[in-house]
Design a protein that fits this description.
CATH superfamily of the largest domain: Crotonobetainyl-coa:carnitine coa-transferase, domain 1
Radius of gyration: 25 Å
Helix content: 25-40%
Strand content: 5-15%
Number of helices: 13
CATH class of the largest domain: Alpha Beta
Structural class: alpha/beta
Order of helices and strands: EHEEHEHHEHHEHHEEHHHEHEEH
Length: 371
C-alpha cells in the first residue's frame, strides 16, 4: 500500500493486544507509518476492528521458535516496536527489549501497561477504571453520590495511548540523532496522574475542594454544566469567563433571575436550580438557534449517531467513510503531509497477504515455515 502522512517511511512492529496499544497503532498508521501487526493465533475480532484499521497483519504462534526468529528479523528492519502485555510476557517469549535491542541498537521499544513495568501492582490485572482510580482522577469525576468512570477515554487512551505515542516519537527523534534506541515504559496510571497536574496545582493553591460537583470544572459551577431541555435532550454550557457569563445571562434573559456574583460558591446550588428551570422551557433545537456559534460557550450534547451530521463536523470532515464504515477521521491535521486512513489487506486475507506484507519488509515467508 502507498502510505501518506508525516510518518511515511517509518516502520513499526505492533504485537496485537487490546485497548491503548492498538489505538496508538491506528494513529501511527493514520500518520503514514508502515505498521505490521503480529496477530496471535485464535485472536478475537469485534469491537476493536476500526481501531485496527490501516495496517497489514500476519498471524503467528509466538510459542514456536521460528515465529520468534521471524519477529527478531522484523525488528532488525523496524524503527519501533510496541506491545501491551503484562510485564515479563515478552521476555518469556524471547522477544523482550534486551534481545531486540541487541539485534537493532537504534530500535525504540514501546511498552504499554496499566500499572507500569515495576511496582507492587505491576503484575496484577486491571482496567481503565482502576488506573484512573489510583491516579486520583476518578475521585474528582462523577456525581455527588459516587465517582463515575468517564468511558475509557482518560486512562486507556488519554493516559495510555497518547503517552505511548509521545514517548515513542520522542525516543525515535533521539535514536535518529544518536543511533541509540531505548525502552519507553508507558503506564496508564502515570499518564492519568500526569493529566491531573492542573488539579493538583489548584488543590495546592486552595482553588480545588476535595468534593465532587463543588468545583469550577466538575459540574459544581452552574455556568459549567449540562442542562436538560423541554424535549428531554441536553445542552452544555461553559461560560467561565465573566464576559461569556454576562452574555449567557443576556441571551437567556436571566440577568434579574441570577443577581448573585458569578463566583459566589455558596450561591451555586440555587443558581443551578434557576438555570435548570430556564433550560427546561425550550427544546434543544430552540437553544441551538439562540446560543450556538456565540461566545456563550455552548454546544448541544450530541449522541454518537447525531455527531457526524452536525454542520461543524461536516464542514471539517471530522467523520469519514472508509471500508464501508462511517468513522472518525484521523487527527490532528497536517498542512504539508496530511494523515489518511491507509488502505490495507483484510487481516484474514491468508498466506498470500502475509507473504506480501513480509516481502515489503524484505523477508521471505518460506524461510521461516516449518519443514
Amino acid at each position: 500500500m502507498t502510505a501518506r502522512g508525516p510518518l511515511k517511511g517509518v516502520r513499526m512492529l505492533e504485537f496485537a493486544g487490546l485497548g491503548p496499544a492498538p489505538f496508538a497503532g491506528m494513529m501511527f498508521s493514520d500518520m503514514g507509518a508502515e505498521v505490521l501487526r503480529i496477530e496471535r493465533r485464535g485472536g478475537s475480532k469485534g469491537a476493536e476492528q476500526l481501531i485496527e484499521r490501516g495496517r497489514c497483519s500476519i498471524t503467528l504462534d509466538l510459542k514456536q521458535p521460528r515465529a520468534v526468529e521471524l519477529c527478531l528479523k522484523l525488528c532488525e528492519r523496524a524503527d519501533a516496536v510496541f506491545e501491551g502485555f503484562r510485564p515479563g510476557v515478552m521476555e518469556r517469549l524471547g522477544l523482550g527489549p534486551d534481545v531486540m535491542l541487541a539485534r537493532n541498537a537504534r530500535l525504540v521499544y514501546g511498552r504499554m501497561t496499566g500499572w507500569g513495568q515495576y511496582g507492587p501492582c505491576a503484575s496484577a490485572a486491571g482496567h481503565d477504571i482502576n488506573y484512573l482510580a489510583l491516579s486520583g482522577a476518578l475521585s474528582c469525576i462523577g456525581t455527588e453520590e459516587k465517582p463515575v468512570p468517564p468511558l475509557n477515554l482518560v486512562a486507556d487512551y488519554g493516559g495510555g495511548s497518547m503517552f505511548l505515542i509521545a514517548g515513542i516519537l520522542a525516543a525515535m527523534m533521539h535514536a535518529r540523532a544518536t543511533g541509540q534506541g531505548q525502552v519507553v515504559d508507558a503506564a496508564m496510571t502515570d499518564g492519568a496522574a500526569y493529566l491531573t497536574t492542573l488539579y493538583y496545582a489548584m488543590s495546592a493553591s486552595g482553588d480545588w475542594v476535595d468534593r465532587r460537583r463543588a468545583n469550577l470544572l466538575d459540574g459544581g459551577a452552574p455556568f459549567y454544566d449540562t442542562y436538560r431541555c423541554a424535549d428531554g435532550k441536553w445542552v452544555s454550557i461553559g461560560s467561565l469567563e465573566p464576559q461569556f457569563y454576562a452574555l449567557l445571562l443576556e441571551k437567556i434573559e436571566a440577568v434579574d433571575a441570577l443577581p448573585q456574583a458569578q463566583m459566589e460558591r455558596r450561591s451555586w446550588p440555587d443558581m443551578q436550580c434557576v438555570l435548570r428551570e430556564i433550560f427546561a422551557k425550550k427544546t434543544r433545537q430552540e437553544w441551538c438557534e439562540l446560543l450556538e456559534n456565540t461566545d456563550v460557550c455552548f454546544a448541544p450534547v450530541l449522541s454518537l449517531a447525531e455527531a457526524p451530521a452536525h454542520p461543524h463536523n461536516v464542514a471539517r470532515q471530522t467523520f469519514v467513510e472508509a471500508g464501508g464504515v462511517f468513522q472518525p477521521a484521523p487527527a490532528p491535521r497536517f498542512s504539508a503531509t496530511p494523515s489518511a486512513i491507509q488502505s490495507s489487506p483484510a487481516p484474514s486475507a491468508g498466506p498470500s497477504a502475509a507473504q506480501e506484507a513480509l516481502e515489503a519488509w524484505g523477508i521471505d515467508l518460506a524461510s521461516i515455515e516449518e519443514p
